Amino acid sequence: MNTYAIFAIYLLFWVISAFIMLPLGIRTPDETGEIMVKGQADSAPSNFRPGVVALRATILATLLFGLYYANYVQGWVTVDMLPGYGGSR
């Protein structure tokens, strides 16, 4: 696997991980007791911290990519093992 493929696959894992981590730990103004600004949506987060989301996404993406790469090298699960995708027909 070349470096560009590794970077591209890791980036895909990171984006998916970021979307998974986005809603974790978010509180609305009703939950935190803050006063809402006129025109603000009731569901708007009052404590959004993009740095924490990026850190969590990086940790999760690194773990998932590590498992993916270990499977790529070791061959734990291959296409031939998946029903309908390989093997003898």
Keywords:
single chain, 89 residues, mainly alpha, 0% strand, elongated
In terms of per-residue confidence, which ranges show pLDDT below 50 for 5 or more consecutive residues?
Answer: none
End-to-end Cα distance = 29 Å
Q: Helix content range of the residues, please?
A: 40-55%
Number of helices: 3
Q: Report the radius of gyration as a whole number of Å.
A: 20 Å
| Strand residue content | under 5%
Q: Estimate the global geometry from the Cα principal axes.
A: elongated
Number of domains: 1
Question: What number is the mean pLDDT?
Answer: 92
* Topology as a string of helices (H) and strands (E): HHH
Number of strand elements: 0
Largest sheet: none
**Category by helix and strand content:** mainly alpha
Any overview of this molecule?
The protein has 89 residues and is mainly α. The protein is built from 3 helices and no strands. The longest helix is centred in the last third of the chain and has 25 residues, at 50-74. The chain is elongated. The two termini are 29 Å apart. The mean pLDDT is 92.
Summarize the structure.
The chain is mostly helical and 89 residues long. It has helices at residues 3-21, 29-32, 50-74. The chain has one domain (3-81).
